[in-house]
Amino acid sequence: MNSRATKLLSVAAVAALALTGCAGGSKAPQGGQDGAQADPYAPVIVQSGFAEKGGNVNVLMSADFATLDPGNSNYVQTANVGQLYYRTLTMAKETAGQPPKIVPDLATDTGKVSKDGKTWTYTLKDGLKFEDGTPITSKDIKYGVERTYARDVYTQAPQELNSALTDDGYKGPYSDDDLEAIETPDDKTIVFHLKQPFAEFPALVSRSNTAPVPEKKDTKLDYTNHPVSSGPYKVKSYDRGRELVLERNENWDPATDPNRSALPDTFTFSLSSSQATISQKLISDADPNAITLDSNGAMQASDTASLNDAKVKARTASGFLGCIDVIDLNTETIKDPDVRKAIALAMDREAIQVQYGGARFGQLVTSQLTPQMVGVTEQKTDLSADGKPKLEEAKALLEGKDVPKNLVYGYANSTERYKNVGTVLQQNLKELGIELELRPIPAANYYSTLAGKEMPDIARSGWCGGADSSSARMTVDPNLGPSLDGKTYGFSNIPRFYDKDLSKKMYELRGANGTPEELGAKWSEIYNEVMATYPLVPTMHSYTNSVVGSNIRNAQVGYFFGAIDLSTVGVAK
């Protein structure tokens, strides 16, 4: 997310970057602080092993959070900062370079399941309190989940957990009395009743739905201004669009929470810096206590040489993410699968990779499913592995077709890289006789715009695999699956893909039994079928380089968060 104006790199510039190992599908030279790592995509942790408490971390960001309300968030940035002020039944604990592991958080374990797989029971730990000292009960967790059903209020509420529960048309606590799918027989016990068996359920209750919310403190949409803390920090002050300050929550008991080190005394978030300013501050070490949560560490394509500097490299946390970027094609406005396929084949994904900064910032991919996912079968595609366009094939597909003359590409206005991606697409589509308008969208409203009536014809988005990144379902179903009732496209389905037969297969597969390998293969196979219609085009599997200030310790890039994991960092005083 930046505002630096950079021109589309020419063919000559691409060739020059290729010589330095930073273009196309080549691997960029990386390495740890000694610069000698054999694996160019191995994770790097900056100054690990630090355990001293105190100090302040300055988090530099180019835009405000879309929300701080755990019940209205489907964003990894909110999940990252959220782990500082709220806790959930389970937690996706990050380890650099690896898919996160599901561990107990508010609960004593990852859940006890009934023999039929449809009932999950959790027991809360002793000593859990909100920031005001009142005990956290199972009813507070149930109420937190109930709020996410009020879709007329919380338009971005995560829905994966809700889709698994037997809700019987429940509409939330403001209009209905009780969600019968969740029982709270006592203050320490919470029981979930599912429509169908769901082997990955412990990952679902690591989502922000299960953050406890005290009903008497629920201020609906204003809750984002001061969510009541159940974690190690609480909101001290929040000036929307300018600054957020978190301070220690004195009623958080570290004995109940082995997952968060909570080393700094405070976190100060600056919410309106340009990415160009952020990257230069970090590279120059102008603020030794600074980090960023911006994508790709706020680094620009022009920062490649600086990242090779030994002093900067020593302050660079890096790692492969579970995040894969795609170009979404709105299937409601670009209805013909052949037209979508032609657009996909015409894309110069190699040039798109250059706009991300080259191979240093990730690998080109032709699928959202990765080898780490259990049971994934061969991924079939007509996209070129090296990212080069197939213009002649694309043009042949359009013969005799009703081809749109004008389309719109929407991008987050704080991210120059995404605008530059649009410039690449603009040139590619011109070869097909299609004029592409580039339309900026306010970054804070970007994903809500994609989910609403103003969704453009083409847009870029990313998906970070979810808490259970080893499950193909946790990528395929949210991105391409149907709604909760199976009658239309799902909430996170940005391309709005819905096919009577394929969507029905996905809906039915949600309740299938089998081993993780068997289910993974089935989701993988249906992904191939859906992708033959090109609702989206995979581009980059992100490898993030995030420079931190010289006082920052334990800095690691979270596989799920796609940025510095806030739960681990410390600061030397």
Automatic annotation (TrEMBL):
This is ABC transporter substrate-binding protein. PROSITE patterns: PROKAR_LIPOPROTEIN (PS51257). PANTHER family: ABC TRANSPORTER SUBSTRATE-BINDING PROTEIN, PERIPLASMIC BINDING COMPONENT OF ABC TRANSPORTER. It comes from Glutamicibacter uratoxydans (Arthrobacter uratoxydans). Residues 214-223 have a biased composition (Basic and acidic residues). Keywords: Signal. GO terms for molecular function: peptide transmembrane transporter activity. Gene3D superfamilies: Dipeptide-binding Protein, Domain 3, Periplasmic binding protein-like II. Residues 210-234 are annotated as: Disordered. GO terms for biological process: peptide transport. Residues 1-23 form the signal peptide. Pfam families: SBP_bac_5. CDD domains: PBP2_clavulanate_OppA2 (cd08506).
